């Protein structure tokens, strides 16, 4: 396999463990970036007396994280070519291209709804039309979610394979929590943990896509 691309046979229903393993360098770099950036933003807000709002906090985190990711040294070992590209997005949004895949880094513990047509296309793996009877598309797009606890401290990082979305709902093929690099990547549980299993600590089952905001 070319070290600088994801295999073409990877689809949105490929075992997420294989996908995550192929993306490990990037995922660990993103995790470490947020782990360092959030305390820096906290110190900046306190030092400068900046009003703490979710919008300002998240904007500062995105700005600082982008700076750290620009310094991310991820190169093809065979030819020394860098495989990470950072796209220019309005409001300092985080958009990346890595090993032939496109990424959006978004805030939250579940996949946000797709408020724009651009995000809807991204969630649909860039396919103009998608329907349940179609085969799983080639994996082209992934979302990295970062979240904080009630004290604004970095708490979780997830990798999500989006499936579809609109202004009210968002659906994913799977969602996988990325553990601290020192711990490695969290595997799926070997057995169901009981009625409380299936929360965001574990990979979402492929047969039951995650739907956000869907009303019965």
Question: How would you describe what is shown here?
Answer:
With 216 residues, the protein is an alpha+beta fold. The protein has one domain (16-185, 201-212). It has four helices and seven strands. A hairpin with a 2-residue loop joins β2 (94-98) and β3. α2 (24-48) packs across α3.
Descriptive labels:
single chain; 216 residues; alpha+beta; seven-stranded mixed beta sheet; disordered C terminus
Short description:
The protein has 216 residues and is of the alpha+beta class. The protein is 26% helix and 22% strand. It has one domain (16-185, 201-212).
Lay out the secondary structure.
Elements: H1 16-22, H2 24-48, H3 54-70, E1 84-87, E2 94-98, E3 101-107, H4 117-123, E4 141-148, E5 154-165, E6 170-177, E7 210-212
Parallel strand pairs: 3-4
Antiparallel strand pairs: 1-2, 2-3, 4-5, 5-6, 6-7
Helix pairs in contact: 2-3
- Can you summarize the main beta sheet? 7 strands, mixed
| Backbone CA Rg | 17 Å
Distance between the termini: 44 Å
Helix count from the secondary structure assignment: 4
């Amino acid at each position: 396999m070319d070290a600088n691309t994801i295999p073409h046979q990877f689809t949105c229903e490929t075992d997420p463990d294989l996908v995550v393993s192929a993306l490990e360098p990037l995922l660990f770099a993103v995790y470490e970036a947020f782990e360092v950036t959030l305390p820096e933003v906290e110190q900046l807000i306190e030092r400068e007396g900046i009003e703490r709002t979710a919008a300002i906090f998240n904007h500062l985190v995105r700005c600082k994280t982008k700076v750290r990711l620009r310094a991310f040294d991820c190169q093809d070992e065979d030819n020394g070519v860098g495989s990470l590209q950072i796209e220019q997005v309005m409001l300092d949004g985080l958009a990346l291209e890595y090993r032939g895949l496109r990424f959006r880094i978004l805030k939250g513990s579940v996949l946000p709804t797709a408020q724009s047509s651009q995000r809807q296309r991204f969630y649909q793996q860039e396919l103009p039309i998608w329907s349940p009877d179609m085969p799983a598309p080639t994996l082209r797009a992934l979302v990295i979610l970062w979240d904080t606890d009630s004290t604004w401290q970095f708490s979780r990082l997830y990798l999500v394979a989006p499936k579809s979305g609109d202004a009210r709902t968002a659906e994913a093929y799977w969602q996988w929590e990325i553990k601290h690099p020192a711990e490695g990547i969290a595997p799926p549980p070997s057995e169901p943990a009981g009625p409380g299993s299936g929360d965001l600590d574990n990979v979402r089952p492929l047969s039951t896509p995650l739907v956000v905001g869907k009303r019965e």
